[in-house]
Amino acid sequence: MISRRSFLTGATASSLALGLGSCASSPEAGPGVIRYWGVGAADKDKDEQVREAFLATDAGRDVEIYIDQVPSSGVADMSSIITAVRGGTAPDLWWMDRFNAVQNASIGLLEPLDELIERFEEVSVPEFTSQWIQFAVDELTYDGRLYGLPCTTDARGLMYNEDVLRDAGVDLDMFDPEQHVITWDELGEAVEKIVQIDDRGNYTRFGFAPWLGEGWPYTWAFGLDAQAYDNDTATVTLDSPEWESVFQLYADWAERFPYASVDAFFATYQPPNAPPTQTAMFSGRLGIDTTGPWQISGNEKYAPDLPLKFTYLPVAQDGDPTYTWSGGQCLVIPRGANITKALWEFLKFYAGFEGQSMVVPQYGNLPTNVRAIEEGNYNPEAELFRTMLPNSTSRPPLPVGSAMWDTLTRTRSSVALGSRTPAEAVADNQAMIAPKMELFEGYRMPDTYGQPSTRLDP
Amino acid sequence: MSSSLAADPRTAGPGGAAGGATAAADPAGPRPGRATVRRRNLRTGLLFISPWIVGVLIFIVYPVAYSIGLSFTRYSGMEAPTWVGVQNYVTAAADPLVRTAVGNTLFYAVIAVPLGLLVALTLAIAMNQNVREVALYRTIFYAPSLIPAFAMSFIFIVFLNPQFGAFNQVINLFGGPNVNLLGDPTGVKIAIILMAQLGAGNAALIFLAGLRNIPRTIYEAARVDGAGPIRQFAAITFPLLTPVLLFNLITGVSGALQVFTEAYIVTNGTGDPDAGALFYMMYLYKNAFGFAELGYASALAVLLFLAGLALALLIYWLSRRFVNYDVEAG
Hints:
The structure holds two protein chains of two kinds. Among the domains of chain A are: 192 residues, D-Maltodextrin-Binding Protein, domain 2 (3-Layer(aba) Sandwich); 120 residues, Periplasmic binding protein-like II (D-Maltodextrin-Binding Protein, domain 2), CATH 3.40.190. Chain A has 19 helices and 15 strands. In chain A, helix 2 packs antiparallel against helix 15 and helix 18 runs antiparallel to helix 19. By secondary structure, chain A is of the alpha+beta class. Chain B has 15 helices and two strands. The two termini of chain B are 36 Å apart. A two-stranded antiparallel sheet of chain B has the order 1-2. The N terminus of chain B is likely disordered. Chain B has a domain of 225 residues: MetI-like (MetI-like fold). Chain B is mainly alpha-helical. Helix content of chain B is 69%, strand content 1%. Classes of the chains: A alpha+beta, B mainly alpha. At the A-B interface, helix 3, helix 4, helix 12, helix 18 and helix 19 of A face helix 7 and helix 14 of B. Chain A: One of its GO terms (molecular function) is maltose binding. Chain A: InterPro entries: SBP, TAT_signal, TAT_signal_bac_arc.
């Protein structure tokens, strides 16, 4: 039985501890103090490794780095960082999805790095940024200024379960990236063989659908030469015939493999918000999925015995060039940060060769630092994706990136469900985004955007 | 403050008239005038409710006024707002997704509110039964309302699983095909409507209070006149519950216009498939915090506020025809 006195003492002590704890996470700004919003609770050990390594260097002497795990939430929500910046409690450094950089820069959320590079590095911005892959730098460039340093990257490809394909009688050589790049027709035939249906008409084993996993409209757009924006005319081009062909692909596939049936299959074996262990691929019910190298660490952790392999994305015709796109993370300085030499050194360390070499192999992703790539500082299982990097690119760096992603994703489900035709879908997308881009009259993406990287050997 | 209270004959405790007589004989001076007393009372009253007034001013009036101001600007949350006049309202009128979101929200409101009232009234009647273990029933019926919306959403995702979920197991028992409600634009709305019914306990408690307020004597008189249970409900219970029904109707409509959490979780924040669960608040939220268009989101919020106000006024106007205030206490 707890006495009243003990209860009050305990409650007071708890309140004090909570109060002091919250004070400890909001240190006073100083020349050697860095407040950092990290990668997320699940990966906080990586942040801590880099912090310890940096503090052991000359640049890290007398520096204090306070890490809070307030991760960037993809394209969905910027409320936490906007609130922090407006409330005067912004971190000095923020680990963020690179795709959001241009939009966040356009609203004034981020500090440009150009002056810091010139002040602390005494080299030009292009010379300094030549340490990183071009597409990752382009994705951080808005109106000719750099708003962050790239960290990890990736690429898209197909992952397949050899056991499922073999059991279905599919020729595995067609999926071997060293022998063949599979075409859409061949993929469709393979899926027909893989599919199993129970007596009530439900899929119990399924092959592949282009709207699953990383099958975003952008993914297939890069293979069908569909461009979202024309730099020369400064116009949105989401209603081009190429974009219509992207949505036609969804419509054709849904005709063969109805969206509702595929969705029911997924809702059964991989429901929304399922834990990472509960996937249709890991349970041997899905043959092929669109994914990237980040999947490697999950495979090693949750399904080490499954024969999961990777290959290129499907092409239209035999002999067509392969294609992919890359996303990834970056480090940025939000507005209102305490910008110091120590901050710059830590940012440079984390996004540079040392930091990337330390954390990237643990993620399974790929580095953006050219030297880290060349020295093979990544998971060897990701080698196929590394070979894709020289010809990869990012999603278009536009200040309406989130809205564009949102509308493309929504109309994808409309077309797959059959409520909109591909022509209607691309018209909807254009009508939704073009007026938003009119606010950025004459906007130009970096001239190097979409060009193959000259900094990496193929 | 205490002196003001003491000087007020109406607050001087039992025997106010005697207190007044005492005050009249007070050698300290003449009794204050009626206007002075009224002013003092007003001041005292305002002082007592000042926390509420300050709270409303800071947390409701100021944000609403600020939001109305922002709705005439382009504002990202960072740079200074730029005046654009009624442009945001013009954009909203032409935005096809606003129409989709309004349609989805009305679909939800038109079904979820009446259904919710029916479920809540049924629960309240069950909670009002004169049986020994009624306290246990009340707890059981109210318990689902304590589950947070986000937790309930996760439970529903499992409940509606097309293969293993209890919902489909029941359908299968009757030989029906498996249904994936969350994969269909209409089905996902129906799922969210069903989910909302598990929160009917709150409205049921208010109905229960209304039921307990109806004097037993009226039922006894009705029984003497030969009225059965259905006749008693139609002629006594329902008419006398209409003030409570009005309250639950207005709060229900207000809540329905703001449906958000369940749809956000079951669709991973997308509102898909095919924008079937893109409710008005979700679209507003996307614009504000996904697309950093706080000016446009504010215009959407103002429109929602006006729509909610108009519906509330309409319900009040209609209520004159169906609300019965004849009996106030039992």
